[in-house]
Write a structure and sequence with these properties.
single chain; alpha+beta; five-stranded mixed sheet; 13 helices; seven-stranded mixed sheet; about 25% strand; Beta Polymerase, domain 2; Immunoglobulin-like
Amino acid sequence: MYDMSTAFDKFYRKKVVLPATIQNDLRDKKKLNIKRLKDGLLEYNQEKGTDYKISEDRVQGSVAMHTIVQNDEKDYDIDVAIIFEKNNLNGLGAMATRNMVADALKRKTKQFNAEPEVKTSCVRIKYEEGYHIDFAVYRRYKENEEDTEYKYEHAGAEWSERGIRALEDWFSNEIKEKGKDLRKVIRFSKMFCKSHESWANMPSGLIQTVLCDEHLTDDVRIDELFYNTMKKITSRIENSVEVNAPVDNDRPIVTRDSDRTKMTNWKNRLSKKLQELDVLFDNDCTYSQATAAWGTFFNHSYWDELANVSISESFSICKSSTFTDTEEYIDEMYDIDERYDVIIDCKVKGNGFTLMPIVEFLNKYAFRFGKFIPHHFSVTAKIAYTTAPSYDKVLWKVRNVGEEAEKRNDIRGQILDRGSAITENTLFEGNHYIECYLIKNNVCIAIGHVQVPIGIS
């Protein structure tokens, strides 16, 4: 098979994984809407004479497992579990509890075009630009006072026992056992399933995750690993379209005729596109043919751009600017279990301005500089707040973004242990950013992000 592993790795980081800015936007939307829900509950309680309180909230699904992809654009699904104490609900039924949550949200989301939607498994908020947040509702209790662990029940058609973190814990263990390339294969599969706007009715991310895990091959090269895993999945679906969750007593996740149609669509479309990759196995296959084949498979302009750059360089028409890709990624260094929040305290000073929070500077003074921070300022970042009860160390990433950074061959992006606070200087323009990672027992438990937009001096 023609070796396109290097191009696959670049495709993965540039076009598959969500940019850090969008990932942070999803975190902010999650926090904002949990606050809206809590504020709405206070108002609901005052009006109804009740005392409902949220005991926990947890991110779930593709955001929690870090398998969300860029092809989800305008349809980013943020799954959040909200948990009540069972005795706090005073026997309230599953449907009634979801209705109560929707009522509380309506009070604080009147600016939305659509009201919160009560679905069988969640309460959904839709943003105009396509984001949606699904609040899955749970209740918890302890069977015995001396128990250290809670039991959780999900508000579906009725209350049913569910492991609140079972799926994420299962996935984390699979990544440890099978390697981080499993996450890559899942993301490539999702990119494929959403590669054509006309491809309606494709299987959910959970189904793809389960089957990619079930049929992951032991190939070393990422392009071969993905190809051979997809081949095995087509054979698997040919034999059976039924899929069970790896948790919650193997509950079925293909339950309706529409789910079975989606499985058949996946098999047929995948089988057809895999056949179009046969050219990769020809002994005389060229780079141009390989990029064209993968371009057709993923229906993505990245592969055409690769071919065009290759042609331009071979004829010396133009040389694309090159830079050393020094960026590192936390999910390739540590297991991710992003169950806590962390906020970065970022302050700037320089050119006669005293030390002040970066948000305050941008709001009050940046209009003088085109809404950017000028050159020759200093930027200091440290942890302002975290919900993490403890952590072993803090890692930092400073990423320079933009043409100037690439031209200077200075994109940085390494993940380093630099202590509890860092100081940087604003040297050249770009929408740069700083991230911090809290590490506990060799697992990343929280990620903080702050934008540092630097303008022309």
